[in-house]
Protein backbone atom coordinates (compact mmCIF):
# COMPACT_ATOMS: atom_id res chain seq x y z
CA UNK A 1 0.00 0.00 0.00
CA UNK A 2 1.38 3.43 -0.96
CA UNK A 3 1.96 6.20 1.59
CA UNK A 4 -0.99 8.24 0.30
CA UNK A 5 -3.27 5.19 0.51
CA UNK A 6 -2.20 4.56 4.10
CA UNK A 7 -3.10 8.15 4.98
CA UNK A 8 -6.47 7.84 3.26
CA UNK A 9 -7.25 4.66 5.14
CA UNK A 10 -6.81 6.44 8.49
CA UNK A 11 -9.63 8.83 7.63
CA UNK A 12 -11.98 6.40 5.90
CA UNK A 13 -12.33 4.02 8.83
CA UNK A 14 -15.69 4.00 10.66
CA UNK A 15 -15.79 6.57 13.49
CA UNK A 16 -12.57 8.22 12.30
CA UNK A 17 -11.76 11.61 13.83
CA UNK A 18 -9.62 14.67 12.91
CA UNK A 19 -5.92 13.94 13.28
CA UNK A 20 -2.79 16.11 13.06
CA UNK A 21 0.20 15.67 10.74
CA UNK A 22 2.43 14.38 13.55
CA UNK A 23 0.00 11.57 14.43
CA UNK A 24 -0.66 10.80 10.76
CA UNK A 25 3.09 10.35 10.24
CA UNK A 26 3.27 7.84 13.09
CA UNK A 27 0.07 5.92 12.36
CA UNK A 28 0.66 5.76 8.57
CA UNK A 29 4.36 4.90 9.02
CA UNK A 30 5.60 7.91 7.04
CA UNK A 31 9.20 9.11 6.98
CA UNK A 32 8.50 12.50 8.56
CA UNK A 33 5.92 15.11 9.51
CA UNK A 34 6.86 16.97 6.33
CA UNK A 35 5.79 13.97 4.22
CA UNK A 36 2.51 13.89 6.13
CA UNK A 37 1.95 17.60 5.46
CA UNK A 38 2.67 17.23 1.73
CA UNK A 39 0.29 14.28 1.40
CA UNK A 40 -2.42 16.11 3.36
CA UNK A 41 -2.16 19.14 1.05
CA UNK A 42 -2.53 16.87 -1.99
CA UNK A 43 -5.56 15.07 -0.55
CA UNK A 44 -7.54 18.21 0.25
CA UNK A 45 -7.07 19.34 -3.37
CA UNK A 46 -8.11 16.08 -5.04
CA UNK A 47 -10.58 14.33 -2.72
CA UNK A 48 -13.20 15.03 -0.09
CA UNK A 49 -10.84 15.75 2.74
CA UNK A 50 -10.48 18.99 4.65
CA UNK A 51 -8.22 20.72 7.19
CA UNK A 52 -8.85 23.15 10.01
CA UNK A 53 -7.24 24.28 13.27
CA UNK A 54 -8.66 22.07 16.03
CA UNK A 55 -7.73 19.59 18.74
CA UNK A 56 -6.27 16.36 17.39
CA UNK A 57 -8.46 13.39 18.29
CA UNK A 58 -5.34 11.28 18.87
CA UNK A 59 -2.79 13.39 20.82
CA UNK A 60 -5.06 16.23 21.97
CA UNK A 61 -2.77 18.95 20.60
CA UNK A 62 -4.21 22.18 19.17
CA UNK A 63 -2.91 21.90 15.61
CA UNK A 64 -4.00 21.73 12.00
CA UNK A 65 -5.96 18.51 11.68
CA UNK A 66 -7.21 16.61 8.65
CA UNK A 67 -10.48 14.73 8.36
CA UNK A 68 -12.69 13.01 5.80
CA UNK A 69 -15.52 15.43 5.11
CA UNK A 70 -18.37 13.26 3.89
CA UNK A 71 -20.70 16.27 3.85
CA UNK A 72 -18.50 18.33 1.52
CA UNK A 73 -16.73 21.56 2.43
CA UNK A 74 -18.48 22.27 5.71
CA UNK A 75 -17.73 21.72 9.36
CA UNK A 76 -18.21 18.09 10.30
CA UNK A 77 -21.28 17.51 12.40
CA UNK A 78 -19.84 15.20 15.04
CA UNK A 79 -16.84 16.27 17.09
CA UNK A 80 -14.37 13.63 18.24
CA UNK A 81 -14.57 12.31 21.78
CA UNK A 82 -13.03 14.80 24.20
CA UNK A 83 -9.41 13.98 24.94
CA UNK A 84 -7.06 15.17 27.64
CA UNK A 85 -5.22 18.31 26.59
CA UNK A 86 -1.65 19.16 27.55
CA UNK A 87 -1.37 21.62 30.43
CA UNK A 88 0.11 24.40 28.33
CA UNK A 89 -2.81 24.33 25.87
CA UNK A 90 -5.35 24.82 28.65
CA UNK A 91 -3.56 28.05 29.59
CA UNK A 92 -3.90 29.66 26.16
CA UNK A 93 -6.04 32.79 26.37
CA UNK A 94 -9.01 32.92 23.95
CA UNK A 95 -7.86 36.33 22.72
CA UNK A 96 -4.76 34.70 21.19
CA UNK A 97 -6.85 33.49 18.24
CA UNK A 98 -6.86 37.08 16.99
CA UNK A 99 -3.21 36.54 16.04
CA UNK A 100 -4.25 33.76 13.68
CA UNK A 101 -7.48 35.02 12.16
CA UNK A 102 -8.00 38.70 12.87
CA UNK A 103 -10.89 40.31 14.74
CA UNK A 104 -13.64 38.72 12.64
CA UNK A 105 -11.73 35.78 11.16
CA UNK A 106 -11.89 37.57 7.81
CA UNK A 107 -9.81 36.41 4.85
CA UNK A 108 -8.07 39.68 4.14
CA UNK A 109 -5.71 37.95 1.70
CA UNK A 110 -8.63 38.23 -0.73
CA UNK A 111 -8.09 41.99 -0.78
CA UNK A 112 -4.51 41.43 -1.90
CA UNK A 113 -5.46 38.80 -4.47
CA UNK A 114 -7.86 41.32 -6.02
CA UNK A 115 -4.94 43.65 -6.84
CA UNK A 116 -2.64 40.94 -8.21
CA UNK A 117 -1.00 39.06 -5.32
CA UNK A 118 -0.55 35.36 -6.14
CA UNK A 119 0.45 32.31 -4.12
CA UNK A 120 4.17 31.61 -4.49
CA UNK A 121 4.78 28.86 -1.92
CA UNK A 122 4.69 27.94 1.74
CA UNK A 123 6.95 27.46 4.77
CA UNK A 124 7.77 24.12 6.35
CA UNK A 125 9.84 23.00 9.31
CA UNK A 126 13.23 21.51 8.43
CA UNK A 127 14.84 20.11 11.59
CA UNK A 128 13.71 23.09 13.64
CA UNK A 129 14.49 25.70 10.98
CA UNK A 130 11.98 27.39 8.66
CA UNK A 131 12.35 26.41 5.00
CA UNK A 132 10.52 28.11 2.14
CA UNK A 133 9.13 25.95 -0.64
CA UNK A 134 8.87 28.60 -3.35
CA UNK A 135 7.23 27.71 -6.66
CA UNK A 136 6.84 31.05 -8.43
CA UNK A 137 8.26 34.59 -8.87
CA UNK A 138 11.84 33.64 -7.96
CA UNK A 139 13.36 36.52 -9.96
CA UNK A 140 10.61 39.12 -9.42
CA UNK A 141 12.02 42.59 -8.63
CA UNK A 142 10.91 45.00 -7.30
CA UNK A 143 8.27 43.03 -5.45
CA UNK A 144 5.93 42.87 -2.50
CA UNK A 145 5.40 39.73 -0.44
CA UNK A 146 3.04 38.61 2.30
CA UNK A 147 3.15 35.94 5.00
CA UNK A 148 -0.34 34.47 5.32
CA UNK A 149 -2.07 32.08 7.73
CA UNK A 150 -5.60 30.80 7.10
CA UNK A 151 -6.25 33.68 4.71
CA UNK A 152 -5.09 36.26 7.27
CA UNK A 153 -2.14 38.47 6.34
CA UNK A 154 0.52 38.36 9.07
CA UNK A 155 3.31 40.41 7.50
CA UNK A 156 3.90 42.47 4.36
CA UNK A 157 7.28 43.53 3.03
CA UNK A 158 8.94 44.91 -0.11
CA UNK A 159 12.23 44.25 -1.85
CA UNK A 160 14.43 45.61 -4.63
CA UNK A 161 16.35 42.32 -4.65
CA UNK A 162 14.90 39.35 -6.47
CA UNK A 163 12.22 37.75 -4.34
CA UNK A 164 13.98 34.41 -3.83
CA UNK A 165 17.08 36.10 -2.38
CA UNK A 166 15.05 38.40 -0.11
CA UNK A 167 12.93 35.59 1.34
CA UNK A 168 16.01 33.43 1.92
CA UNK A 169 17.17 35.80 4.68
CA UNK A 170 14.04 35.09 6.71
CA UNK A 171 15.23 31.50 7.01
CA UNK A 172 18.92 32.41 7.48
CA UNK A 173 19.03 35.90 9.04
CA UNK A 174 22.30 37.70 9.57
CA UNK A 175 23.34 38.67 13.10
CA UNK A 176 22.62 42.37 12.45
CA UNK A 177 19.30 41.88 10.60
CA UNK A 178 16.82 42.65 13.38
CA UNK A 179 13.65 42.34 11.29
CA UNK A 180 14.76 39.08 9.68
CA UNK A 181 15.63 37.66 13.11
CA UNK A 182 12.21 38.65 14.50
CA UNK A 183 10.26 37.15 11.59
CA UNK A 184 12.44 34.04 11.71
CA UNK A 185 11.50 33.58 15.37
CA UNK A 186 7.80 34.04 14.55
CA UNK A 187 8.10 31.43 11.79
CA UNK A 188 9.81 28.92 14.06
CA UNK A 189 7.12 29.30 16.72
CA UNK A 190 4.30 28.98 14.19
CA UNK A 191 5.74 25.91 12.49
CA UNK A 192 6.53 24.29 15.83
CA UNK A 193 2.84 24.67 16.74
CA UNK A 194 1.83 23.00 13.48
CA UNK A 195 0.49 26.20 11.93
CA UNK A 196 0.62 26.63 8.14
CA UNK A 197 2.26 29.78 6.79
CA UNK A 198 1.79 30.51 3.08
CA UNK A 199 3.63 33.05 0.93
CA UNK A 200 2.11 35.44 -1.60
CA UNK A 201 3.94 37.74 -3.99
CA UNK A 202 3.23 40.81 -6.12
CA UNK A 203 5.32 42.14 -9.00
CA UNK A 204 4.20 45.24 -10.88
CA UNK A 205 6.86 47.00 -12.93
CA UNK A 206 4.66 49.50 -14.75
CA UNK A 207 6.63 52.74 -15.31
CA UNK A 208 5.22 55.53 -13.14
CA UNK A 209 6.65 59.02 -13.05
CA UNK A 210 5.98 62.21 -11.08
CA UNK A 211 7.65 65.07 -12.91
CA UNK A 212 11.27 64.05 -13.38
CA UNK A 213 11.05 61.32 -10.74
CA UNK A 214 10.21 57.65 -11.05
CA UNK A 215 7.80 56.24 -8.50
CA UNK A 216 8.38 52.84 -6.89
CA UNK A 217 4.83 51.51 -7.09
CA UNK A 218 5.53 48.54 -4.79
CA UNK A 219 6.95 50.75 -2.05
CA UNK A 220 3.96 53.10 -2.14
CA UNK A 221 1.54 50.18 -2.12
CA UNK A 222 3.26 48.55 0.86
CA UNK A 223 2.56 51.55 3.09
CA UNK A 224 -1.13 51.57 2.20
CA UNK A 225 -1.51 47.81 2.71
CA UNK A 226 0.08 47.95 6.16
CA UNK A 227 -1.99 50.98 7.20
CA UNK A 228 -5.20 49.27 6.04
CA UNK A 229 -4.70 45.65 7.12
CA UNK A 230 -2.43 46.23 10.15
CA UNK A 231 -0.69 42.83 9.89
CA UNK A 232 0.26 41.38 13.28
CA UNK A 233 3.93 40.88 12.45
CA UNK A 234 4.45 44.41 11.10
CA UNK A 235 5.42 46.72 13.97
CA UNK A 236 4.04 50.00 12.68
Automatic annotation (TrEMBL):
Residue ranges constituting the GIY-YIG domain according to the UniProt record: 140-235
Entry protein name: GIY-YIG domain-containing protein
Phylogenetic classification of the source organism: Bacteria, Pseudomonadati, Pseudomonadota, Alphaproteobacteria, Maricaulales
Amino acid sequence: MSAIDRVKSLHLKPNSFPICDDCIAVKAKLSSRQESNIISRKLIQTTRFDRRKDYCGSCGGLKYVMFANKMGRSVIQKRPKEVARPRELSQIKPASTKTYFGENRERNIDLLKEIGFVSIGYWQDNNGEPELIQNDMHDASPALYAFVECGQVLYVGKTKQNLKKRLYFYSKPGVSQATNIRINANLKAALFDGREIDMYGFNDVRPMKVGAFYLNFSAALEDSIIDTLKPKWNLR
